[in-house]
Design brief:
alpha+beta, Rossmann fold, BirA Bifunctional Protein, domain 2, Herpes Virus-1, 3 domains, seven-stranded mixed β-sheet, binds adenosine-5'-triphosphate
Length: about 500
Amino acid sequence: MSKNKSEQIVQNSKPTTRNSKLESLDQFKSWAKENGFIYASSEIYGGFSAVYDYGHYGILLKNNIQKLWEKSMTQMRDDVYLLDSGIFMHPKTWQASGHAAGFADVLVEDKETHIRYRADHLVEEWFEKKGEKVDMDKKTPEELAEIIKENDIKSPEGNELTEPRSFNLMLKTNMGTTDNTLTDENVVYARAETCQGIYLEYKNYMDTIRLKLPFGIAQVGKAFRNEIVARQFVFRTREFEQMELQYFHKPENKDELFEMWKEERMKWHIEELGIDPEKLRFKKHEKLVFYASQAFDIEYDFNTLGGFKELEGIHDRGDYDLTQHAEFSGQKLDYFDQENNTRIVPHIMETSVGLNRILMMVLEDAWTEEEVKPAEGDKPAETRVVLKIKKELAPIKVAILPLSKKEPLQKLATELQAEIRNDFMTVYDETASIGKRYRRQDEIGTPYCITIDFDSLEDKAVTIRERDSMEQVRIKIDEVKAWLDSKF
Ligand code: ATP
């Protein structure tokens, strides 16, 4: 901690060893619920599969992650513009994109229990148990049927499986104001990815903002997929948020651009979110969709999901998207390249990341249970759970904790809160013992706790405790705001 004019260090407890991390999804779910981050949806009706509600602290954290992403895309660059497009789009959008016909996972069903599984995952796990690593991504139902038959693969319960079949992941609904609402003519789809809205607005951005290649359009918003298996907490849900950038460019320098985006995005996870770099890696896609020329995922090593899992996709999509939408809409979506005096269809590079997966990673990466050695005498060590989250991401920045509910301390505390709350997200807490209140704030990742005690009335100073080191400093009340400013 930096020293300032009135700052003096006060004796305090110290964290000793770093004990453990979250170990299972059940532990993760109950911790997230108890601390007001995430609740299973519709609990009073017995729950609703694969949908989650975000509580107060969950939303504050999610908003902070989103802000950092938008800042890195726009405030820190000159060539990316924001968009918020509708969840519903013209149904032809999904014909042009190929989703209406082909956005499917291959599914098998246990003939006894009727539980459904993603066939690719089931086969991969079956081989993994035998110590073999195989990649079943993008295999057709016929290919998977053959592998299942040849190897006599059963369900995890040991039962026979049905023939694999494709299952479209798009969620359908009807839109319209007339009586025939529920007819096939007015079927619409809840968007399965946010990027399609970007392709539909590309022409408007060109015409109204008069952009030159290369430039990007970035969007954060909900996407919906009828996932077959969604038992992985907020990692895979049927309603989720994506943060997608579509970068429109000329094909000439595509390899350098691809490397630039790979580097930028990995840097964001490490530097902006503060994630342990040892737990992040790139994974190259060996099998590509026909229009893509390169694809990498950024993966995080989740303890609670048993290993590395995809967080973000970085894809070189070629000119497929604009060519398809030009064909299906009958509109010209090409670009006049003045330098070469020719018309081209811009190519697109995409970075696509799930906001909910990021939030899950941030929580898991920061969650720490550790031993604390009390300052006084030979009291036994205690354990605390502390969310060692980056300060910029913390849902609450400062907790104001008067040592007594009595009027003079309450007044001093509320005055201090009033002075700083315009700049910092604060919480005021006068319940329970100070130890319990510290633990509560540690657990939601609050970087600074300010206690106001009876001495504060005399010396006009307060104690500020830092979350990770647990170090405490005494600061004059009229210097608190400047002290906090220097920390953020
Ligand atoms: P997966 O292989 O895990 O199903 P995907 O390759 O289909 O993911 P994309 O279509 O590339 O995913 O979507 C981009 C990002 O959106 C993913 O990297 C992920 O972070 C997020 N995402 C995709 N599906 C879900 C989901 N069902 N729940 C939460 N996030 C999701």
